[in-house]
Amino acid sequence: MPPPSRIRVHNLDQARQAVMAARATGVEVTLESPAGAAGWQGIGWWRRLEQALAEEFGAITTVLDCADAPGHALAALRAGCRRISLTAPQRTFERVAAIATRCGAELEPAPPPDGHDPR
Fold first, then answer.
1. pTM for this prediction
2. How many Å apart are CA 118 and CA 20, to the nearest integer?
């Protein structure tokens, strides 16, 4: 099986297309929100997108980008997001990561703003 793929999506239609293409080719996919989407598109928007995808396709891995806003990350955890990304000083990142773990969620570093993600 090919390695997992990460795809940035900006709306539900793009997300659906990405999932269908991944499934048609046998690729595992992780859908990422646009950079900083928690702050400008909103956590509720992302949760509705996740729920719509879950109803249509079952379990899909998604990541909500919270940019450099730990408050958005905490709000996303409260809203039920299970995987989020954050850019923060090490101590802040570790604190939010500990909270995420207690919530059964994962925190990962946000990709660089230039879009190049070495992961």
1. 0.90
2. 25
